[in-house]
Amino acid sequence: MTSTDLPAQDAPRYVRLSIELIAEITDEQALKAAALAQVENDEYLDDEERTQSVEAIEVDPSGSLAHFIDPVALLGDVPGIELTSATWESAHTEYDPEDESWDEYSVEASDEADGE
Question: Which has the closest alpha carbon to 17: 78, 65, 66, 67?
Fold first, then answer.
């Protein structure tokens, strides 16, 4: 079924958009300082959330990146779209840029994954 086969409806259609990014932390102290400043200046955090965020940054500075993710900025100016829900997280990962299995656009990597 294609989008042209769908019946016309007045109700909104929801789309789950999944994005995976891999970022290299090149200066952990700079990231940590910027995240702490971001949390300090976030007018939407209450005191308890602010305290939890600061503690999380102190324990694992790699989690600092999550404080810079803004789904509203990604979709806020797209006509005909209203952001209804967003969740995200950051986590350590093993990454080898030379490993072709990380290249989703590589024909060879997808062939290997398919067992060909």
Answer: 78
